[in-house]
Amino acid sequence: MPDNSARGAPFTEIFAKGSSAAITREITVEVPVALEFNGIAYAVMMATPADLPDFVTGFAITEQLVRHADEIEDIDIAETDKGWIVRAVLAPRAAAPVLERARRRVSESSCGLCGIENLEQIARPLPRIANPLDIDPQAIFAALGALRAQQHLGRRTAAVHAAAFCDIAGRILESREDVGRHNALDKLIGALARAGTPAAEGFFLLTARCSYELVEKTVVAGGRALATISAPTTLAIDRAKAAGLALHVLAREDSLLRVM
Q1: Residue 206, helix vs strand vs coil
Q2: Is 111 one of the annotated active-site residues of the chain?
Q3: Distance CA 156, CA 229 (A)
Q4: I want to staple 89 with a disulfide (CB 3.0 to 4.6 A). Which of 71, 74, 130, 233 is the partner?
Q5: Which one of the listed residues 111, 114, 166, 210 is annotated catalytic?
């Protein structure tokens, strides 16, 4: 699909010494992206409309609607005057969670218990990682040093997050970018799934704070190690420990923190 990730916008650049100049900068596109599964509207995300097949695939995996990319039989993408619509057709064996979500949404409109149900969803156990991955910190430092070259949209706009998948030596194998940190990770997970690359064979590196959602997406996708450039939340640490996910945070060129 064509590059819909950025567009030019005019600005006046004002300098501290008092001069100014008219310039044009590329700005990251942020639009509503509606995700539909088997004809059922599931979610609307504010996202950058690039790599959308990867996005819907990774989203379906991290939402635990499917386990593998081959459970998505077809993907259709359409642009409208209000945003983008991504329609995915799931295999019959994977359709039940979508129907359950639709049923729950109808009941939530009047049941009065949706808050409790949502809290239970957040507290549900994650799959336990049988063989946690012990990452050499030097591999993370190496990946950090190479990440800038992978941030093509980030260099143009300075307004997006990046998610990278790296081998155990710190070589970046794949990366994706998006205005949303969760979206960038979903796109990356989708790209790996579509390529048949096991998430357990390397580690994820994210230009984001480490929230519990990013921990959960990593674990559900089969990842064993995660590194982020910003700090974690308490829930992120708790969820990572419970699942056995190797977690490194505040990763900089000269230091990082390993969660104990």
Answers
A1: strand
A2: yes
A3: 20
A4: 74
A5: 111
